[in-house]
Amino acid sequence: MSDAGKSSRSPHKSVKTKPIRPNKPATNASPDQSQQKKTTSRDSDDSEDEQPESAPLPRSHTPGHLASKSINHRRRKPSDLSIRQRSQSASQVASNSGSSTYVASLPSISNGADPPAESEESEKKQPSASRTTSSRGSRKTLTASATARQTTKITRPPRGQHVPFPPLPDAESAPDVEPAPASGMYWSKAFVSGSPHSNLRAHTTTLIGSNIYIFGGCDARTCFNTVYVLDADAFYWSAPHVVGEIPMALRAMTCTAVGKKLVVFGGGDGPAYYNDVYVLDTLNFRWTKPRILGDKIPSKRRAHTACLYKNGIYVFGGGDGVRALNDIWRLDVSDPTKMIWKLISGPENAVSSSGTETRPKARGYHTANMVGSKLIIFGGSDGRECFDDVWIYDIETHAWTSVNMPMTYRRLSHTATIVGSYLFVLGGHDGDEYCNDVLLLNLVTMTWDKRKVYGKPPSGRGYHGTVLHDSRLLVVGGLDDDEVFGDVFILELAVHAYYSQISHFTIEV
């Protein structure tokens, strides 16, 4: 899907890498694990607010309950190295060890990842010389103990061979693509290398620095709790070795960057829904589960959205397995070890007694973006209807406002990325089919604009991930009617990249 014409517009750095050896096959798999069958049915994400007056959407576009059975029903100093170096090193260690840590089953979670108190006491009683001599051995013992007590396994596909950087395509055999002006936006397929990774949908895609962190999601058969890192400059994949209190396999959760940490909330798999909070430190790749203070927590959900504003993550909507939701919760993340939930806006009826809509209808698979104190909600579905509306919630005044537009577009499972004063909407489903067009919402005039894009676009898809880096929008994975993708596409913004320089504007609605 790439061509020689693109390579001149999107130069890539070449990176020297060490080959990553594949894992030896695990020999101690349990009978339950060996009997797991592949399932070809794609799960759907799912709300069941069924009403007879309109035809329901296909199950794959609904945020509530899934009636079918689950597709995964069992359940030197580091600071001196770059993130990608640590990731590659850890991947090589995991591959060479032939460990059976990566298995398909998901036993119950154990919170015991800390070293035993007895070991600390006995070490204190040792003479100083003895303590120094045995420090290396005790470290190994503690690591083995922590690994044994950690019962949540990483669910990932079998490791394959290291992917070398692909050669540039031959100009004669490359697809015939229309020439593009220098000022035009341009699609191209990224040349990637590094650690093998699975095809993914309903995963999270979060940018910190120049690294894209991909967590969880599903392929056509099962869900994962794997962390991948994609270097957005070199397009190099790595699968770092993670430790700590690892989340269960998830899809349709949210992942929010708070400094150098990633905060994951909610998600689920099949009929299972969760409302747990996990934190991944991207400096040492350790998962922790913060202590939640207070007794108020949001209901279990997936297909929701989460945005950061003033040390608080604002969660809106989603589905809880029975119905779609339209409540807003705030998670205080000023302390990554202890957090507290607060209900900001309850799950109220969207229509007042006079018949006017006062807030968005309950929904999932929408998008949410934060501009100043304004939360912008677009699209989504309640399981019956694919929405085309835009709503603004002012966090300071706690007021909802509906945006009236002369032209609208229905979308769910799309992505929406802020580029200056514009919202770039890519892909998604319009209620009839998957799309691959690019929509721009002008946040000053609150009008939609559809721009011509050159190059060879990705196939229509939803449930993908998009980030903005270096004047490009990078699209990772996704799903269409027939296939789950593992590719990476680049949308060169060209002259539209200057939008990102627009930082002072207000949303007046």
From TrEMBL:
Q: What is this protein called?
A: Conjugation with cellular fusion-related protein
Q: Where is the composition biased (Basic residues)?
A: 9-21
* Annotated coiled-coil segments of the chain: none
Q: Where is the composition biased (Polar residues)?
A: 25-38, 101-111, 142-154
| The keyword Repeat appears for this protein | yes
Record's Pfam families?
Answer: Kelch_KLHDC2_KLHL20_DRC7
Which residue windows does the record flag with biased composition (Low complexity)? 82-100
**Domain of life, source organism:** Eukaryota
Provide the alphabetized UniProt keywords. Kelch repeat, Repeat
SUPFAM superfamilies cross-referenced by the UniProt entry: Galactose oxidase, central domain, Kelch motif
Species in which this protein is naturally found: Epichloe bromicola
**Segments for region (Disordered):** 1-180
